Amino acid sequence: MTQAVGIARAHTNIALIKYWGKRDQELFLPMNSSLSLTLDAFYTDTKVIFDDTYTADSFSLNGKEQSEKEIQKISRFLDLFREYIGEGRFARVESLNFVPTAAGLASSASAFAALALASADALKLNMTPQELSTFARRGSGSSTRSLFGGFVQWDMGTGSADSMAYPIDDADWDIGMLVLAVDTKEKKIASRVGMEHTVQTSPFYPAWLETTKEDLSAIKTAILAKDFETLGQITEHNGMKMHATTLSANPPFTYWTADSLLAQEAVRQVREDLHLQVYMTMDAGPNVKVLCRASDMERLVQALSAYLPAEKIIKSLPGPAASILSQEDWQASHQKFSERI
Ligand code: DP6
User: Which residues form the Mvd1 C-terminal domain (predicted)?
Assistant: First the structure.
């Protein structure tokens, strides 16, 4: 029996300049470059075992065996690695998602980043994290960015080999993020489907692409200058523009619910009342994420609890890059997971 084992942890990330649209569906090549903040509060731990006695791939998530459909997604992803080095063995994948259910955050970014790093570790692939991000990309675009900590850019690239992510800044300058988890139900329109429909039908899409280029260059200047106000203003504007493309798609749709609008209103009110630098962004779901100063987080939570239940407000600081875990770390992770449910 030959066995190859790899274990890794990757944190989730929230885009400040959104990835919205693919120019190649198969290769997950994006229409635009994007930039995100990795969060420490939410992560996925994954163990992969390639074993020549296995007769098929299998996948368990949070201790539950997954359906054939979920296994197929994992298999297709592992095939990229198997084809790359001529590996014939099937694999067992076990993942634990440390994303509070209440956060309602999609976990595909941390999931594929953790699986990519665990696979590279198991198969002893000699790759830089940047190169590895081109593999992670094929599982889910946003996972490219979860291989790195702090502020991270994903370059659209000219082709598959250079559409990769890299770190911009470690975000250790009084940065925080709140997730206002207004609704934790599964999203109705997957980002993959929503972005495709938007690219094809929204007359605003070309304007989105054009102005996002400018946003990206301006936000990078703001990050390097540690100019939080400009960083926040660009983040809020870019997110709103992404959502304007869904409202202008045909037929139109939106990820916002009535509760999202109430949460947005609460953020605006608190910003005005407390004169705090707080900026919001939203993804392919109803929850609102608030970029703020880490040092303002407690005051902010208190002020926002006048508008929504305190247990729906989840705090996070910037998170680190993905990392390889030991067998002891994996056991500790299981222990932690069992204690939280
Ligand atoms: C709105 O990475 O989930 O969160 O590549 O099709 O898996 P696929 O899409 P995904 O899309 C993320 C969209 C977004 C913006 C972002 O994270 O940049």
Answer: 177-317
